[in-house]
Write a structure and sequence with these properties.
The structure is a single chain. The protein is an all-alpha fold. The chain starts with a helix and ends in a 10-residue tail after the last helix. The protein has 21 helices and no strands. Helix 8 crosses helix 19.
Length: 408
């Protein structure tokens, strides 16, 4: 009896410790990923100062995506994600990203130099986002679907936070807005560094890594989850990039057309995705990650199709409501796809597999951002049809997972 009580007490202490670690990692992820769209918070100022078009802003966003792709490819091919201490790599990349983001604010002399600095920020983010997911799994592997939902919720808020900063500090220089995200990233790096590794960390050997990371695509369940994720990624970041433009169009000549109002509305529509992530995590607990991801991707795909037909016929407030529902659904499937990939992947290869999956996904997102921002001024709200193939193909790719009995 005493042994059982002692074991129960130890398990309870371990659970409390894991919950605290999850909270630390989630907040650090929020702070670190605020670097991602820091340039977009300064969109209006940069368009005025550097005479940038929507296409130019698309290139600034894509420079981060391309840097992320290069960083994740380096990480996956060298085994950094599975060989080195995850918390130290996360912290180092957080500090590097903060410095490069600050250089973007303080040293950019124009568009060309800004692209270089933002590319560097993207490389640094390759050590924050996917490794944040891996670190979380090392603390609570049996609760991956729910804990990853909180982590991606923090990514969503981190992405949206720069719009909130811009809206709340609308009278200050864009440089200060960008520097604020650097300070947040430094705080997140120090939090993870002090936390250290999770108790379920498994390091891969050089022999185990050789050819194995790419070989995970031979696993049917991993392949279905990954290709569903790829369809989701074609839509997600292009939508987030277009949000300020779609809002500005919806509120044009209305009472909320100021730069401050557009920034705060952008924060709301992107940030509400955090609620979608948490709700998806709760849903997955009862019905499985595959069903949660399928429903979210189906809703966002329907909105891709419906939005241009409705936007021209309804009031601006209703357009904002549609965008809010879209923002809620567009990210809710992301943590569930990652949870499905984690479940299908050998534990010692989780870091590299997620990093490779992210790399391909963000390459697709860079393509969709380029396509969408290049023709936005010609297509207007019809631009959403360019995003539609992602959800359609993603739903088809992941459909085999729906036949499996839920495991979380």
């Amino acid at each position: 009896m005493e042994t059982q009580v002692g074991a129960g007490h130890t398990e309870a202490v371990s659970s409390i410790r894991a919950s605290r670690a999850i909270a630390v990692i989630a907040i650090a992820q929020l702070f670190g990923t605020s670097l991602w769209f820091s340039a977009n918070a300064a969109m209006h100022d940069l368009q005025t100062s550097w005479h940038l078009t929507a296409s130019g802003m698309g290139w600034l966003t894509n420079s981060v995506q391309l840097g992320f792709i290069v960083g994740t490819l380096i990480s996956a091919s060298t085994g950094i994600a599975d060989r080195l201490p995850t918390s130290r790599v996360f912290a180092a990349c957080g500090l590097l990203g903060a410095v490069l983001n600050a250089l973007f604010a303080l040293c950019s002399s124009g568009f060309a130099s800004a692209v270089v600095f933002r590319f560097g920020v993207g490389i640094a983010l390759a050590g924050i986002y996917p490794l944040g997911m891996k670190l979380l799994v090392t603390w609570a592997p049996t609760r991956a679907a729910q804990t990853l939902a909180w982590l991606v919720a923090m990514l969503t808020l981190g992405t949206a936070s720069v719009h909130a900063i811009r809206g709340l500090l609308d009278n200050v220089s864009w440089h200060l807005v960008v520097l604020t995200s650097s300070l947040l990233a430094i705080a997140g790096a120090l939090m993870v560094l002090s936390l250290g590794e999770g108790p379920h960390t498994r390091r891969a050997t050089s022999r185990a890594l050789t050819g194995s990371v790419s070989a995970v695509f031979r696993i049917r369940e991993f392949r279905a989850a990954a290709f569903g994720y790829f369809g989701h990624m074609w839509e997600l970041y292009a939508f987030w990039t277009l949000v300020p433009l779609l809002i500005a169009r919806a509120v044009a000549d209305g009472p909320m057309e100021s730069t401050r109002d557009v920034a705060l509305l952008s924060f709301s529509i992107i940030g509400i995705g955090a609620v979608g992530c948490v709700a998806g995590g709760i849903f997955s607990k009862w019905f499985g990650s595959a069903r949660a991801a399928f429903i979210a991707l189906l809703v966002s795909g329907c909105l891709c199709l419906m939005y241009p037909f409705l936007a021209g016929k309804i009031h601006g407030v209703m357009q904002l409501a549609l965008l809010a529902v879209w923002g809620l659904a567009v990210i809710a499937d992301s943590p569930q796809f990652s949870a499905l990939s984690v479940r299908a992947c050998p534990p010692e290869l989780i870091g590299g597999a997620l990093t490779l999956q992210n790399s391909i996904g963000f390459f697709l997102s860079a393509c969709s951002i380029f396509a969408a921002t290049s023709v936005y001024h010609s297509l207007g709200t019809w631009i959403s049809l360019i995003l539609l193939p992602g959800p359609v193909l993603g739903l088809l790719a992941m459909s085999p997972l729906l036949a499996k009995k839920p495991r979380w």
